[in-house]
């Protein structure tokens, strides 16, 4: 390293230490609590110091890192896939919930509840290779736009949470996505948008098999659920994939309750946070009675459990990143 | 950084570049091929250069990183657990395969084949918490000795393979264990012996559930198989856990065939290697007809597939590390 480079590096380090690591967070208690936690676990000699290998942070995705209204975005991807696949499936025209999806009547399609969603998900994402699923996700992410905002889905992420991910990563944390969403779907954009590589994504998964097709080995996604990474499944997914208890967990709904409970019940310094959707103007306002991302038990127990409740309206200066097109 | 430190660092880097990274490997083709591969994927500007994030190396464990004779070591752990648990299970005295294990007649216990092994494994490792399993493994690893060598199991690892792991890690590879052995069992010593953290261990796993016991959240291992990480299961385990295709795979048996096939069929530079157990004097000699770690198809196809066949007897100067006690 040349001396000038070394000096430049020193300067960059000094400057970044002074800069606000969370510029899209207002100067409220929330920001202060986060920074105080990161400071204490990263300060050598502090009684709360945590070695880098143990600095595991887990993040829910839907409603925590990006929006989840009017429905989980992956469902819109699934609707889109069904419509694209329809010409090859003439039998769908007479069969619910497929017929309603093809007609664009999503409300009717969802009237069948979980069973209907599952059959759509398996049809859209089963019997294809992992590579085909990756490509389909990439295509959709590249062209699809949110019905209410007109934004790309990759720009429906929360700017303050992007900063939080960066801040934790810069402080030696390994950040994982632990999502109820599908693991293949999540992996495609996690690296690009969150700087989180595929091996740090835990999600709901379908069964898969390995086979050699015309001499080419492939992973085939089978049309059957393997693991549901939601509620009590989240700590199990963390145990199976990571094998360590995190020290930091962020969620937004009761689907994240057990993940926060598991994380914050460990010894030593722990941090649990819930994003509370309080901003009907810049995003959506919902909690206990929402059809997606319902936050009920978490809202009642956050205070007694010492979890930070982030008030989207009051704690964030902005919600989404600047729109690029 | 002080100038003297910088100079010292430069010196260390220069010295380590000159030192032999694989001192327990003879100067045969095997060593040369490994080093040539690592050189080409790590040399910036080389047409075969691979960015660090893509330098994923996967290693089987039994027979590849440590011995597997007379039986897989985890089976000896299971026998030990059954004997320890026996006083609480008087019904086992009359019930096979438990009765034979309690009597120390392992041959008879294994006469029941896979079904017998599975029932022992589920009894020994099911209905306990992940924490209890960790502790039981740690206790056993700390005190148990191999029946033939008298060594601790952590000293039944192959010194040349420890050097290979170090060498790859020093060259920006992320090294994973992808074992047919149990994931909890593997994770306990992988970090200590191989420098591989729990999140980089893929293994056979049992179903698990999350529950809160007297206010304390726990992960409970259920007495049921969830995933078998062997043969065609290995590429599936890699896909589920890592989400990337490795560029380097090491195994020793036909249980690793699909992992090597999947790894080496990808585009760009790839490396597959099989440890061939040829050393009856220093370890064991076995291949096609072995009751554990049978290497048949792999032995027949290694050459045509361009996989390195490591001759334990000829390619390694030593097998095990120096014994500490």
Overview of the structural elements:
The structure is a homodimer of 325-residue chains. The first copy, chain A, is α/β, with parallel strands linked by helices and 325 residues long. Chain A folds into two domains: 22-70 and 151-315, Rossmann fold; 73-143, no CATH class. In chain A, 42% of the residues lie in helices and 18% in strands. Chain A contains 13 helices and nine strands. In chain A, helix 11 links the parallel strand 6 (248-251) and strand 7. The first copy, chain A, is globular. The mean pLDDT of chain A is 94. At the A-B interface, helix 9, strand 4, strand 5, helix 10 and helix 11 of A face strand 4, strand 5, helix 10 and helix 11 of B.
Helix-strand layout with pairing:
2 copies of one chain form a homodimer.
Chain A: H1 3-18, H2 29-42, E1 56-59, H3 73-85, H4 98-103, H5 106-110, H6 113-125, E2 128-129, H7 130-143, H8 159-170, E3 174-182, H9 183-194, E4 201-213, E5 216-227, H10 233-241, E6 248-251, H11 257-264, E7 271-278, E8 285-286, H12 297-305, E9 308-311, H13 312-315
Parallel strand pairs in A: 1-3, 1-6, 3-4, 6-7, 7-9
Antiparallel strand pairs in A: 2-5, 4-5, 7-8
Helix pairs in contact in A: 3-6, 7-9
């Amino acid at each position: 390293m040349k001396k000038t480079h070394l000096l430049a590096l020193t300067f960059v380090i000094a400057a970044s230490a002074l800069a606000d690591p969370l510029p899209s967070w207002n100067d409220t208690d929330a920001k202060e609590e986060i920074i105080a936690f990161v400071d204490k676990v990263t300060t050598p000699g502090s009684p709360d110091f945590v070695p880098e290998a143990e600095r595991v942070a887990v993040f829910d995705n839907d409603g925590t890192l990006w929006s989840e209204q009017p429905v989980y975005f992956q469902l819109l991807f699934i609707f889109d896939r069904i419509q694209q696949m329809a010409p090859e499936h003439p039998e769908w025209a007479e069969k619910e919930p497929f017929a309603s999806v093809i007609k664009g009547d999503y409300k009717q399609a969802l009237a069948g509840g979980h069973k209907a969603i599952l059959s759509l998900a398996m049809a859209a994402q089963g019997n294809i290779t992992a590579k085909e699923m990756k490509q389909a996700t990439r295509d959709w992410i590249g062209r699809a736009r949110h019905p209410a905002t007109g934004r790309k889905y990759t720009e429906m992420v929360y700017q303050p949470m992007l900063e939080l991910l960066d801040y934790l990563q810069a402080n030696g944390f390994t950040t994982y996505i632990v999502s109820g969403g599908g693991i293949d779907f999540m992996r495609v954009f996690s690296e690009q948008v969150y700087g989180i590589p595929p091996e740090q994504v835990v999600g709901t998964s379908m069964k898969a098999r390995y086979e050699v097709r015309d001499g080419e080995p492939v992973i085939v996604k089978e049309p059957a659920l393997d693991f549901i990474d939601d509620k009590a499944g989240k700590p199990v997914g963390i145990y199976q994939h990571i094998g360590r208890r995190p020290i930091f967990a962020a969620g937004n709904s009761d689907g994240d309750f057990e993940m926060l409970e598991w994380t914050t019940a460990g010894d030593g310094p722990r941090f649990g946070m819930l994003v509370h959707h309080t901003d009907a103007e810049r995003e959506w306002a919902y909690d206990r009675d929402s059809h997606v991302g319902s936050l009920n038990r978490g809202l009642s127990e956050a205070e007694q459990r010492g979890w930070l409740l982030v008030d989207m309206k009051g704690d964030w200066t902005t919600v989404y990143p600047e729109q690029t097109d």
